[in-house]
Q: What sequence folds into this?
């Protein structure tokens, strides 16, 4: 059986309009190449607010760069805006195998639009297969 490790990248929280929430970085050596997925969830109530998630990589764990141009998976997405009632969106973003050329990966969530409400929240959990644990 393949072990899949959950890793809380972003706890469920709100943020100010336009403020990027930087996820907890994951050291890529912990994961098998190409085996890191991020479950991104947003619950948006405010009618003109939406959440955007994106993936980033770092060569040193300090300086991060937006990932772009994945070959098989989206690396960013925006949610639907709220309607006065909570609109919940959950999608999975995946790190391409090339992300292992970097030492760290993370996810970033940003709320944008009108002033955010405490009910407008984002969260993300990474799932990865430990290095050396994928069958050949």
A:
């Amino acid at each position: 059986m393949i072990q899949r490790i959950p890793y809380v990248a972003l706890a469920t929280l709100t943020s100010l309009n336009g403020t990027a929430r930087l996820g907890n970085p994951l050291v890529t050596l912990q994961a098998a190449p190409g085996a890191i997925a991020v479950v991104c969830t947003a619950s948006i109530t405010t009618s003109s607010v939406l959440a955007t998630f994106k993936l980033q990589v770092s060569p040193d764990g300090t300086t991060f760069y937006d990932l772009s141009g994945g070959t098989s998976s989206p690396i960013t997405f925006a949610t639907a805006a709220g309607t006065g009632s909570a609109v919940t969106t959950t999608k999975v973003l995946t790190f391409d195998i090339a992300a292992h050329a970097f030492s760290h990966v993370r996810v970033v969530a940003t709320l944008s639009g009108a002033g955010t409400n405490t009910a407008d929240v984002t969260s993300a959990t990474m799932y990865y297969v430990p290095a050396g644990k994928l069958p050949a």
User: Anything to note?
Assistant: The mean pLDDT is 88. The chain has no helices and ten strands. The two ends are 13 Å apart (CA to CA).
